[in-house]
Amino acid sequence: MQTIFSLHSFTIFLIILCFISCATFSPKHEKVQTKVEKPSCVDPNYVYCPNRTAIPSFGESDQIDIYYLTAPLLKHMLNNTLSHVNLYHSAIGFHHLASDKTYVIEYAVNNGFINLLEPMIYLNASGQKEILHCDYATLCFSHQPIFPGPETYYTNATKVAEATGTEFNTLLEWSKKYNLTHQAYRLFLVLKQWPNDKETPFFDSVDCMDFTNSFVDACIESGIHIVTEKVRRDYSLLFTLKPELVDISNPVNYNEIVKFYEELDIRGSDTWQILKKIVKMLYNFKFMRDMKGNYYRLTPIMPFVGNHYEMIDTHMSN
What we know:
Elements: E1 3-4, H1 7-24, E2 63-72, H2 75-78, E3 88-96, E4 101-109, H3 113-117, E5 120-123, E6 129-132, E7 137-143, E8 156-164, H4 165-181, E9 189-191, H5 208-221, E10 225-226, E11 230-240, E12 244-245, H6 251-263, H7 271-283, E13 287-289, E14 295-297, E15 300-313
Parallel strand pairs: 9-11
Antiparallel strand pairs: 1-15, 2-3, 2-8, 3-4, 4-7, 5-6, 8-10, 11-15, 12-14, 13-14
Protein name: Ceroid-lipofuscinosis
Transmembrane segments: 6-25
Keywords: Glycoprotein, Membrane, Transmembrane, Transmembrane helix
């Protein structure tokens, strides 16, 4: 089954996010456009990959079970709240049978959600305003429990495949290449219509779900033994007419982009201001930057934003 949750549900999510933002801000999250020095992307309230560990080496004949992990988004702060509007974080878990050790590979932002959502505007040495995007993301490899329990972050672990050490080492090499080619997090799949344009969007999303599903695809393409028929796939959607490339060498265009981001800066804002600005941004998303640094002008259309999930066929092995 599948669903697109309503604008009402999405607004509820925004209200929750608003209070999260208030709870996580500190005086260090002040507006930065008056500073001459280039600001730092580091968020003092965010710890990237706290359980990070070195990637182990597996023997050729080792047996490793691979799991598709999910947990309600922001579970560490809101418990299961966001599962009610079908918002989830996902990762790949694996169980090394000989040692009984479990590990997780996940795709995560490096500098916190607020810095991902909004770039910083600052003054350079010449007094000109510049845009600093802090959307860097990498794979986190950690040693932690994966099976649902009181000490486990993930609430669901679906066994996807069974691999030998040799096969899994190949997947780890694939992961390293993925890490090099997907270094900027993108929250939204940007398109005109769902599901008609799902395969040909204007911009692809690059998020945790994209990584986990790409990992499962890599398992299938490698001929690894697949043991489940379907896995869940979530999409965060942004609806627009065809984006138009913006010439940022034109000062008028560049200043318009700067103004758009400045008006939406929630750093140092109170609760009500944060809520209004987040709603305005998501329902009136005027500009978007691609992986090459090009800016595009968007023309948002109904339903503006949405969330969709479906069950993806894994072509289970016989």
